[in-house]
Amino acid sequence: MSTLRFFALKETLNRKPKKIVEEKRRSELFGQNVYSLSKMRQTLTSDAFESVTNAIEKGAKIDRNIADQIASGMKDWALSKGVTHYTHWFQPLTGATAEKHDAFFETIENNGAIEKFGGSQLVQQEPDASSFPSGGIRNTFEARGYTAWDPTSPAFIYGTTLCIPTVFVSYTGEALDYKTPLLRALQAVDSAAVAVCKYFDKNVRKVNASLGWEQEYFLIDSALVSSRPDIQLTGRTLLGHAPAKGQQLDDHYFGTIPNRAMAYMRDLETESMLLGIPVKTRHNEVAPNQFELAPIYEEANLAVDHNSLLMDVMDRVAERHNFKVLFHEKPFKGINGSGKHNNWSLSTDTGVNLLSPGKTPMSNLQFLTFFINTIKAVYEYEELLRAAIASASNDHRLGANEAPPAIISVFIGEQLTHVLNELENVTDGKLSPQEKTDLKLNVVGKIPEILLDNTDRNRTSPFAFTGNKFEFRAVGSKANCANPMTVLNSIVAKQLMEFKVEVDKLIEKKDLKKDEAIFNVLREYIKQSKNILFEGNGYGEAWEKEAKKRGLSNNKTTPEALKVKISEKALALYKELGVMNAIEVEARYEIEMEDYIMRIQIEGRVLGDLARNHIVPTAVKYQNILIENVKGLKEIYGDAFKKVAKAQLDLIEEISTHIETINNMVTKMTNHRKKANEIEEVEAKANAYCTKIKPMLEEIRYHCDKLELLVDDELWPLTKYRELLFTK
Ligand code: ADP
Ligand code: MG
User: Fold this and answer.
1) Which secondary-structure segment (H or E) carries 568?
2) Same domain, 516 and 632
3) Measuring from atom 11 of ligand 1, which residue has the nearest CA?
4) Three-class SS string for 453-515?
5) How many whole angstroms from 210 Cα to the centroid of ligand 1?
6) Which domain CATH number covers 506?
7) 347 lines ligand 1 (CB under 6 A)
8) In terms of domains, do 243 and 151 share one?
9) pTM for the full model?
10) Smallest CA separation from ligand 1 atom 17, residue
11) Which of 234, 300, 459, 605 could make an S-S bridge to 211, C-beta 3.0–4.6 Å?
């Protein structure tokens, strides 16, 4: 056993769970480090407070004078909690979070010093943006970017720093981050949904999108991770033979949480509470050492910020517990991967969840309106939704042997399927009084108020209705939720706008009553978007065939999937809604394609190194031992040695074959890489990486994994799957 593998295992086996003392109730800790509205109310003048609430609710501007007051209140609160620095906290297109800390401290005349923080520092900053990805925006336009305060997401203290959530835009106004387009999409869905709500309730003034994410992750001991260069550098194992026992027994899912993991979770939950992240659920996932964490859902922008922040906190808390968190969608071959279900719904400022059936036929018609419009939106833009979750790492889940598939479909359960079938038969044009009564009593009126417990749970669906929300399950565990949330809210906004136009037209031109017009339009939508509905097994080959017949896309790889982002249809959508202009969309496309290329490039390099410098030399060493053994047998047995040494001779040969193949393939892969790197055009380059280099990773792995089975365990340099997954 290599020294590294030996010490890693020894260290891991000696670990004890950290003792966690929880002195206060969670509810007392909740939001202590957040400059929330209630804290603002306590520390701000009523003018300033009103100004902030107007900015949050209506997007109103905050003037300089008021900004100064808010900054001052924020600073006093932060200083009282021992904070020394502040930072504009944002989410550049790297997918991580970014921050640059400045001290409140400033010198004044006569050698004195004070703590200072004014409105201008709160509202806007100019970080040196040149190292963040911009997809060429800054080359073409302006070299600088700035961050600007987003008052809808409250400032928080992390460590000794006051973090102010901000957007990040170039000087020419193009978004350089994930948050800006999300805010624009949320704005679009708000106004489109409010307009539709007015058919049912004139009092609705605002519609919020809600998001409840479920974060899956693996926890692996940090010593074991340091003995695996592949995990360290790429977040996943590039080789490693499946262990004799994997997840077949289903004994991990919802099982007892191991002690060390439990200590980690409790510590993490305390940190989350202080930061106002309402984490609620924790449990084991399907794979060994795989877990899930879910909060209570929140307004989508805040939920996205909280997920990004939480992933960061998870990393930091893991350090204290000698763990490394793996967010990669597929860290281990042959073992379940991780996702991040995005539970989504729309709710009004009058307290109604628009995706939850109500008590009266009218409120159920409202529910059906939003429900069917969402289905239609997904049908119209299924490829764009697929593009929103495309990444090199998520390709290992989508369209690979694991769910959900790369085909986007919607699952709605038996009851609602039945309701839609009934609605499909609604009369064209005016409805007879009898039909109206029938619809009211027997169709719309029959939707049970609580669907939650009745919805069948189809775990293979990428987009499922689960009683009072849609659950977008195909999102990757590593992803920033802003991307899928921007797309989902945009397409629903666009759909609701169209719906409104069509209903109004019917009311005016055909003199239909409001509910008649709504029934008529919904009927057509059901007919048009039927093909997206699928209740069966999403993993099967049969579905692939069926989906193809239905004309649904099946973009299995990221380069294929991403292309849709810059299609005319997508550009037109974003332009119409004001979510992104063509430059912003193209920049993102380029950044994501580059990211794809780089990830596979790095994996290629790491695997090349591991195969040549770790695996092959180990195999040679073992082969030499075998050769010595054969020589000895020959000495003893003379010419008869071949009979006694048969197994050894076979092994020597088998090892040679694998070594040779590995060597050839690594050379071939390096050559492919060199060629691919010369390609200028991003699409062709990504395709080369996808079709030429990526398959070789699998082939090289195959032979390395075979060697793992042949070579003496004592000599094997890399920590094995069994040790990574089952050491507690
Ligand atoms: P599971 O899918 O594991 O059965 P749950 O039903 O417990 O999960 O919910 C998962 C997530 O969905 C949680 O984060 C929860 O807060 C969120 N959620 C529940 N209701 C809504 C809703 N109306 N809108 C958005 N998210 C919701
Ligand atoms: Mg779920």
Assistant:
1) helix 568-577
2) no
3) 212
4) CCCCCCCCCCEEECCCCEEECCCECCCCCHHHHHHHHHHHHHHHHHHHHHHHHHHHHCCCCHH
5) 10
6) 3.30.590.10
7) no
8) no
9) 0.95
10) 212
11) 300
Q: Is ligand 1 within 6 A of the CB of residue 214?
A: yes
- Do residues 407 and 543 touch, judged by C-beta distance below 8 A? yes
Alpha-carbon distance of 265 to 20, in angstroms, equals 10
Ligand 1 contact, 343 CB (< 6 A):
yes
Tell whether ligand 1 has an atom less than 6 A from the beta carbon of residue 339: no
Mutation test residue for ligand 1: of 354, 469, 472, the one with most atoms within 8 Å of CB: 469
**Distance in Å, CA 354 to ligand 1 centroid:** 15
Residue type at 181 in one-letter notation: P
Ligand 1 pocket member 212 (CB < 6 A): yes
Q: What is the domain range of residue 85?
A: 31-177
For residue 518, is it within any domain?
yes
Relative to beta strand 207-221, strand 323-326 is antiparallel
Question: Which atom of ligand 1 approaches the CA of 297 most closely?
Answer: 16
Residue 703 lies in a domain: yes
Q: Does some domain include residue 24?
A: no
Give yes or no for residue 370 CB within 6 A of ligand 1.
Answer: no
**Mean pLDDT of successive 10-residue segments in the chain (728 residues)?**
89 92 91 94 91 88 90 94 94 84 86 87 79 67 75 94 93 89 97 98 96 97 96 97 73 76 95 96 87 97 97 97 97 93 97 91 93 98 97 88 81 91 92 90 78 65 93 95 98 98 96 94 97 90 93 95 97 98 94 96 98 97 97 93 93 98 98 96 97 97 97 95 87
For residue 213, the ligand 1 atom closest to its alpha carbon is 14
> Can you tell me the distance from the alpha carbon of 189 to that of 214, in angstroms, rounded to the nearest whole number?
23
Does residue 469 line the site of ligand 1, with CB under 6 A?
A: yes
243, 720 contact by CB (below 8 A): yes
160 and 195 together in one domain: no
In the chain, the number of structural domains is 3
The candidate with the shortest Cα–Cα distance to 377, out of 523, 535, 497, 547, is 497
CB of residue 210 inside a 6 A radius of ligand 1: yes
Length of the chain: 728
The Cα-based distances of 103 to 112, 121, 162, 710 in angstroms read 15, 11, 10, 58
